[in-house]
Specification:
This protein is about 40% helix and about 15% strand. By secondary structure, the chain is of the alpha/beta class.
Length: about 200
């Protein structure tokens, strides 16, 4: 009886665990679907220089030298992803961007100046758990909030935002992640696009 009880409890414990996140890659059909609107497009900033971490204990948002910077490759990645999104002819109603320099610079290189900085999209490894909570809440809200008809919302921010919200750390930097917003019901992960996949998807 004891052995059976232990087995049942173990099975119940296992059933309570959420399924592991499974990454899916976009197809050409996905590209066409986003043209119709109704998606949230989440772009991770371009490649960065990890040898220059964000200043401890706090970065200065007005001083990019206190923050982990984009590399030259990262700048090219951001520019290329922006060009790919324009080639894909995805309608964009709004672009919301983390205030950290690596995200703002990525947005500028990809999309020009037509974006709004959203303070609560910022994510730095130096932040405390209480500081991260409103970031996760904001990210979750923006992924779930319905978008204007026949258009999409685009976010440029960081991988840990998604890790905290859904257990997904998109790699490499510059990866685009697609979601369907469902309002109060949350959001649905659709697919991801790594920077090097665009050429094949847009043939």
């Amino acid at each position: 009886f004891v052995a059976m009880l232990v087995s049942v409890l173990a099975a119940l414990a296992g059933a309570a665990e959420p399924p592991a996140f499974s990454e899916k890659w976009a197809t050409r059909a996905t590209i066409e679907q986003v043209r119709e609107g109704g998606f949230v497009i989440y772009m991770r900033h371009g490649s960065t220089d990890s040898s220059k971490p964000d200043r401890f204990p706090q970065v200065d948002l007005n001083d990019c030298s206190t923050q982990r910077p984009l590399t030259d490759e990262g700048r090219q990645v951001a520019s290329d992803v922006g060009k790919a999104i324009r080639r894909a002819r995805w309608p964009i109603a709004e672009i919301l961007v983390s205030p950290l320099c690596r995200a703002r610079e990525s947005a500028e290189l990809a999309f020009g100046s037509g974006f709004a900085v959203h303070p609560q999209l910022m994510y730095s490894g130096n932040m405390t758990d209480p500081e991260k909570q409103p970031v996760a809440a904001t990210t979750r809200l923006l992924l779930a909030k319905p978008v204007p008809p026949a258009s999409n919302r685009l976010i440029v921010a960081h991988a840990p935002n998604l890790m905290d919200v859904m257990g997904y750390f998109p790699k490499p930097e510059g990866t685009v992640v697609l979601f369907r917003p469902h309002g109060d019901a949350g959001f649905e992960y659709i697919a991801s696009i790594a920077p090097k996949q665009w050429a094949e998807l847009l043939k």
